[in-house]
Amino acid sequence: MSLLLDGKALSLKIEADLAARVAVIKEKSGRTPILATILVGGDPASATYVTMKGKACQRVGMDSIRLELPEATTTEELLAEIAKLNANPDVHGILLQHPVPHQIDERACFDAIALEKDVDGVTCLGFGRMAMGERAYGSATPAGIMTLLRHYGVELAGKHAVVVGRSAILGKPMALMLLGADCTVTVCHSKTRDLAALVKQADIVVGAVGRPEFIQADWIKDGAVVVDAGYHPGGVGDIQLKPLGDRVAAWTPVPGGVGPMTIATLITQSVEAAERQLG
Ligand code: NAP
């Protein structure tokens, strides 16, 4: 039998632990941890993600502030809002929902988030620290994947991990986190030649491409660990999961695998940030 890497179940357990930690923060400091979320523009999927993150805050006893900015917001306007949140002692974590409208310099805005409030792990400084093996809040999706792999006891040291995708929030930090866990890592992207042959060598495959069922089941070798970060309408990810059947060692379902772990990681890092700032 293949092992189901059940992100939904693990996220519920993590939330129960976080609720207890939030109760302690409230009792000790008399204050409630607050995550500020920023949504720019009207993308319905982004609005749904922000709503889900706000609800997760509620479930663990945190508060959230939701800032909604118009589609035409400029970089300067967004930077001004981030500066206000950085300076607000009642706000312990800041989430800027990706992607922002094209006229905005997203990198500049991510990097304007104060490091101690960068609970979604999007700043260059946080990324650099993580890459060097120093303490930092990890980018939420890959950090959630690492938590999931470790929880289920997936052996990482010495394994060949193939990450398909190299985005700043997912593929790149994923590759460095796996490297930090002593995997040998291959990072693939749109210019990679003979992708199928590279995926075929993987002990661990991470799909972070953003194309429905792009990674074919017959590219994946028997006994591999399969992590699908994608989510598309119709409940499919970036990897063709169904035909894999029981011939892989472990796999993340879509939905219910990586998605809930992303949110659980954001909330975990928000609670940690509040503990540090209020402790
Ligand atoms: P992205 O920014 O669009 O990056 C996609 C990556 O895939 C790029 O590095 C791109 O290469 C690569 N790629 C595109 N076509 C390719 C091809 N034909 N062969 C090989 N590589 C190819 O996407 P993202 O933000 O990283 O997201 C990736 C997936 O994860 C999406 O399905 C997204 O929905 C999902 N996601 C899920 C969560 C969650 O919480 N579950 C969070 C974030 C993202 P180049 O760099 O060469 O363009």
TrEMBL record:
The keyword Oxidoreductase applies. InterPro entries: Aminoacid_DH-like_N_sf, NAD(P)-bd_dom_sf, THF_DH/CycHdrlase, THF_DH/CycHdrlase_cat_dom, THF_DH/CycHdrlase_CS, THF_DH/CycHdrlase_NAD-bd_dom. Residues 5-120 form the Tetrahydrofolate dehydrogenase/cyclohydrolase catalytic domain. Its EC number is 1.5.1.5, 3.5.4.9. One of its GO terms (biological process) is methionine biosynthetic process. Pfam families: THF_DHG_CYH, THF_DHG_CYH_C. One of its GO terms (cellular component) is cytosol. Pathway: One-carbon metabolism; tetrahydrofolate interconversion. Residues 139-277 form the Tetrahydrofolate dehydrogenase/cyclohydrolase NAD(P)-binding domain. NADP(+) binds at residues 165-167. GO terms for molecular function: methenyltetrahydrofolate cyclohydrolase activity; methylenetetrahydrofolate dehydrogenase (NADP+) activity. It catalyses: (6R)-5,10-methenyltetrahydrofolate + H2O = (6R)-10-formyltetrahydrofolate + H(+); (6R)-5,10-methylene-5,6,7,8-tetrahydrofolate + NADP(+) = (6R)-5,10-methenyltetrahydrofolate + NADPH. CDD domains: NAD_bind_m-THF_DH_Cyclohyd. Keywords: Amino-acid biosynthesis, Histidine biosynthesis, Hydrolase, Methionine biosynthesis, Multifunctional enzyme, NADP, One-carbon metabolism, Oxidoreductase, Purine biosynthesis. Catalyzes the oxidation of 5,10-methylenetetrahydrofolate to 5,10-methenyltetrahydrofolate and then the hydrolysis of 5,10-methenyltetrahydrofolate to 10-formyltetrahydrofolate. Belongs to the tetrahydrofolate dehydrogenase/cyclohydrolase family. Homodimer. This is Bifunctional protein FolD. The gene is folD.
